[in-house]
Design goal:
The complex is a heterodimer. By secondary structure, chain A is mainly alpha-helical. Chain A has 14 helices and no strands. Chain B is mainly α.
Chain lengths: ~300, ~280
């Protein structure tokens, strides 16, 4: 009897550890497959960027297109960046993009939260009608109204001005909707006590409510920044003087004028990418959040 | 608590902008469809002439076909692949956040930069052909061949959109209760069974959302066509919006272009309604 139990004990242990190692091995396999797939997909995703970086660092005598492709430049040089920076007035394009993006973020934030305030916190006749009308405009694609909006800008004498580029994008139903959702979440008692303390509606909006919806404002700011920074069609249509072009339009011109010089275009494209990459890395959690909140309306 | 007058004061600035740049233009677009407005001559009412012209215009049918073709190439891929990508990045793995950021990044790159990067990928001696060469396939002139131009643009769109739609699915996956999976595991469900019976059904609203959004954006996309192929070769990447753009701003035929816009709007509206109906019936 005693001998038997002694014999049994190690047997059970062996069985147990074998089971564990099986589970362990299955996990390892899962990790292996996952990482292989993830890395493969990541390489495919960043391949165009890698290739651009490599091209922009290649000297004038090096071949760009070759088989097999050559990713590592033989003579590493930053000359292309210097050339493109000096000859193409990229600093000016960059500055124009900054100006357009600044107003393209600030004005929508201001006006959309202004309109969202009464829709979220006041009761008045016609409120539902106003809100439904705003939501209905979400159904109208900008591409459909492109022609009348262009004609309006032209009638207002705003062709060739930054106002003409910025104004059509200031108010969007989606931004009003997001801000309204943020305001609704704040308890109503706050407004009541502020009114008793003698605050007016403007003060309540500016001093009390807006500071409380900062996360939503940041999210919206990110969304608007991506849109404004990458805006291409409106500046192309509205602006006439090339010294007012933002980077996107400047780069489009560059693509035309430097068709043959791939290295310079690569350098220019990377310079255009850097600001959005910096903003993206600095505010990555907001980027993810902004994508999530876009899904809210579905 | 608040006076009604105050509410309207807050709404006026936004209301003016919304009327000027959205509501009135929408009505004007419809109105212009029935005129022969061409910037130089005074506007004249021509009834349904623009519409009957569109339906007998070969270019219009070509653009309509190209739009549907692009949609069919792009939308199914953007509905299905991101689901698996989201399942992949929803695992608890070291550095998974970095992978998520990498996949999402292309969505932030402007169309012009995207066009520049991918034009090189598709060159006859570019990376794409180099990769094909290594598996023994002859090089193709992707963007200048009328059969490969549109599929090439679709590849770019999918590359740019995968990470974007992945995030929506990821949000959906993270709201699925873990208990469901544990219960299924106890019942002996494997990887596929778990996803077929739990993941996909609970992602249904997101799938609907992605279907609508990717459909809308497929029907509206044209900057890629403008910057990568300029509608060519031989009109093979001229979509409806590209045609509207060209007719309005190159040929200055604003009336005819508005009629095509109106048709596009009706198509988008119908597709959205179909999508919604499909969801309503599957949810009942």
């Amino acid at each position: 009897m005693e001998l038997k139990t002694v014999e049994l004990q190690p047997k059970i242990q062996v069985k147990k550890s074998r089971k564990l190692s099986l589970k362990h091995r299955r996990n390892l396999l899962r990790w292996g497959i996952s990482y292989t797939l993830l890395t493969l997909l990541a390489v495919v995703t960043i391949m165009p960027f890698l290739w651009t970086v490599s091209t922009s660092l290649k000297g004038q005598n090096e071949t760009i297109f070759s088989y097999p492709p050559n990713f590592i430049p033989e003579n590493l040089t930053f000359e292309n960046f210097v050339t493109v920076w000096n000859t193409l007035n990229l600093p000016l394009y960059l500055w124009n993009s900054v100006v357009l993006s600044f107003w393209g973020v600030l004005l929508p934030l201001f006006f959309c939260s202004l309109a969202a305030f009464p829709l979220a916190r006041m009761n008045f006749k016609g409120k539902n009608l106003v809100f439904m009308t705003i939501l209905a405009t979400m159904m109208i694609p900008g591409e459909v109204t492109m022609i009348p909006v262009y004609l309006t800008i032209s009638k207002l004498g705003l062709i060739g001005t930054y106002s003409g580029v910025i104004l059509p994008g200031v108010v969007s139903a989606f931004a009003i909707f997001l801000m309204r959702q943020a305001f609704i979440a704040i308890p109503k008692e706050l407004d009541e006590s502020a009114i008793i303390d003698g605050a007016n509606a403007w003060q309540i909006w500016w001093h009390i409510l807006l500071p409380m919806v900062k996360p939503m404002l940041a999210t919206l700011a990110i969304l608007k920044f991506i849109g404004a920074w990458n805006n291409f069609l409106w500046p192309l249509l509205i602006l006439e003087d090339s010294s007012m072009y933002p980077l996107t339009v400047g780069l489009y011109e560059l693509k035309g004028t430097f068709v043959s010089n791939t290295r310079l275009i690569a350098a220019g494209a990377l310079i255009a990418l850097i600001p959005i990459l910096i903003v993206f890395i600095a505010f990555q959690s907001y980027f993810i959040k902004s994508a999530y909140s876009s899904a809210v309306k579905g | 608590m608040y006076k009604a007058r105050t509410a309207w004061l807050f709404l006026i600035p936004t209301g003016v902008l919304l009327l000027t740049f959205s509501i009135i233009p929408a009505i004007a677009a419809l109105g212009l469809s029935f005129t022969n407005y061409n910037v130089f001559q005074p506007i004249e009412w021509v009834g349904i002439e623009n519409f009957s012209r569109a339906f007998s215009d070969e270019d219009f049918w070509n653009a309509l076909w190209n739009t549907f073709y692009y949609w069919i190439l792009v939308t199914p891929a953007l509905i299905v692949i991101p689901v698996f990508l989201a399942i992949l990045v929803n695992q608890q793995l070291m550095g998974i956040k970095v992978y998520r950021l990498i996949f999402y990044f292309p969505a932030l790159v402007s169309v012009v930069v995207t066009a520049i990067l991918w034009t090189w990928m598709f060159k006859s001696d570019g990376l794409f052909n180099a990769a094909l060469h290594s598996v023994g396939i002859n090089p193709v002139d992707w963007l200048t061949d009328k059969f490969t131009a549109m599929p090439s643009l679709a590849i770019v769109t999918v590359w740019q959109g995968l990470g974007y739609y992945m995030l929506f699915y990821l949000a959906g996956l993270q709201s699925v209760s873990k208990d469901l999976y544990e219960a299924a595991e106890l019942d002996g469900a494997g990887f596929w069974a778990k996803h077929i019976y739990i993941t996909f059904p609970s992602l249904k609203p997101i799938i609907f959302f992605v279907t609508v959004i990717s459909t809308m954006s497929a029907f509206k996309e044209f900057t890629l066509m403008l910057t990568m192929t300029a509608g060519g070769p031989i009109g093979s990447t001229t979509t409806l919006v590209y045609m509207i753009f060209e007719k309005a701003f190159t040929d200055l035929e604003m009336g005819y272009a508005s009629a095509v816009s109106t048709i596009l709007f009706v198509i988008i509206l119908i597709l959205t309604l179909i999508n919604k109906r499909a969801l309503d019936t599957t949810q009942q």
